[in-house]
Amino acid sequence: MKKTTVLLALIISQFAIGQDSKNVADSQFKINFLTPGVEFETGISNNSTLNFALGTGIFLRKQNNQDTEFGVFPYLDGQYRYYYNFKRRLDKGKRTDRNSANYFSLSALAQSGKSIIGNVDFTEDYAAFVGPIWGMQRTYNSGFNLNLSAGVGYAWSENFDGEILPTVSFTLGWVLGGKK
């Protein structure tokens, strides 16, 4: 009985220690300025986060001899992110604070069909996208943040049955608040 109690205490203490060694930031608030928007990322396990973004996306189209069409559209994006290379970055002496690492994610995005700036409006009220994403996020000492991501997923709208489409995103901004 005494050995069982000691063994159980050791196992429980390992779980408690494991909780303190979380690789991802508990939470961070980001402001993006390249395409204006805000993001909130919260850690949910050692290497996983949920990231929520409210921002703007740019649409640019030039067809044949027509004028170039331009529009800025609001969107809402939610992602589950799994950061996979913290150890390798640490072994190479690179930064990992503020979730500076590469990740795989599952993204769900909804975008308005009405532009807030520009001469493009779609007949649909919304468009949506769901799919896997690969990305890399880096945050520097100053809080300057960059995020590059790409993936392929299923896109649809109220008048469009949908198809598999690529997605690419690049954001520049700042992380506000503490380092971890």
From TrEMBL:
Signal peptide: 1-18
Keywords: Signal
Protein name: DUF3575 domain-containing protein
